[in-house]
């Protein structure tokens, strides 16, 4: 088998997969579900057509996230996809702090949008909204003051 033959087969396979339309993942209630993660926070997000209401842990998102930066973070995928005010979002989130939770919800909303409208994947992917930010707090090691910091050196 020559190298060009293998390349042709790969190109044919790529063309076939490009033609297959990706089906939206919507449940019986007309909602798209996704899980978002950031640091130690895990967010379960349900997205359905509506008037733009965002509810987090049975509270309005403006009550849950007092800082405007965190509210802006959650709305980013909707703004980029030009879907602001078109979907109602219900999310439950636990773990980590408020910043990690906002990142987890943003990740969940982005994934749910791509499940609802698979064509939005190409819009959201360049902004990094679909990538799980894998950075977590490093564990403390024995013989160290913190994860990497040594104890203060004393000559005497």
- Major sheet, described briefly? 5 strands, mixed
Distance between the termini: 73 Å
Count every helix, treating DSSP H or I runs of 4 or more residues as helices: 5
Radius of gyration: 21 Å
The percentage of residues in β strands lies in: 15-25%
Mean pLDDT: 90
Strand order of the largest sheet: 1-2-5-3-4
> Secondary-structure element sequence?
HEEEEHHEHH
Helical/strand content category: alpha+beta
Number of strands: 5
Which outline best applies?
A: flat
- Helix content percent band: 25-40%
The low-confidence runs, each spanning 5 or more residues with pLDDT under 50, are: none
Describe, in plain words, how this protein is organized in 3D:
With 156 residues, the chain is of the alpha+beta class. It contains 5 helices and 5 strands; from the N terminus they run αββββααβαα. Strands 1-2-5-3-4 form a 5-stranded mixed β-sheet. Strand 1 (32-38) and strand 2 form a beta hairpin. Helix 3 (68-80) packs parallel to helix 4. The longest helix has 19 residues, at 98-116. It starts with a helix and ends in a 32-residue tail after the last helix. The model has no long low-confidence stretch (mean pLDDT 90).
Q: What are the defining features of this structure?
A:
156 residues, 5 helices, 5 strands, 37% helix, 19% strand
Describe the structure concisely for a colleague.
The protein is of the alpha+beta class.
What layout of secondary structure does this protein have?
Layout: H1 3-19, E1 32-38, E2 41-49, E3 54-56, E4 59-60, H2 61-64, H3 68-80, E5 87-94, H4 98-116, H5 121-124
Parallel strand pairs: 3-5
Antiparallel strand pairs: 1-2, 2-5, 3-4
């Amino acid at each position: 088998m020559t190298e060009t033959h293998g390349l042709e087969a790969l190109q044919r396979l790529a063309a076939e997969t490009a033609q297959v339309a990706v089906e939206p993942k919507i449940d019986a209630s007309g909602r798209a579900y996704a899980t978002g993660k950031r640091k130690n926070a895990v967010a379960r997000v349900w997205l359905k057509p509506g008037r733009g209401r965002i509810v987090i842990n049975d509270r309005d998102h403006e009550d849950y996230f007092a800082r405007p930066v965190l509210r802006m973070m959650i709305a980013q995928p909707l703004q980029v996809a030009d879907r602001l005010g078109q979907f109602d979002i219900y999310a439950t989130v636990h773990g980590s702090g408020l910043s990690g939770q906002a990142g987890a919800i943003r990740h969940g909303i982005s994934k749910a949008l791509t499940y609802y409208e698979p064509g939005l994947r190409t819009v959201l992917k360049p902004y990094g909204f679909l990538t799980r930010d894998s950075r977590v707090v490093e564990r403390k090691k024995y013989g160290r003051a913190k994860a990497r910091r040594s104890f203060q050196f004393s000559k005497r």
